[in-house]
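#struct-help
A.M.: can someone run this one for me? Single chain, 42 residues.
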Amino acid sequence: MNFPFEGNIRFKAPNKLGTVVYDREVRFKVNEPGQWTLRIDL
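D.P.: on it. Structure tokens below:
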């Protein structure tokens, strides 16, 4: 893997009532090697 590493994740997520589904996108950049966890809280 070459650094910096840039990535994106696209997904669909419902609202709390489940009545609407939204398209979501998360973009991130990792500048240094190591152990990384990407956590997405909705």
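A.M.: thanks! DSSP finds no helices and two strands in the chain.
D.P.: also worth noting: The beta strands are 5-14, 21-30.
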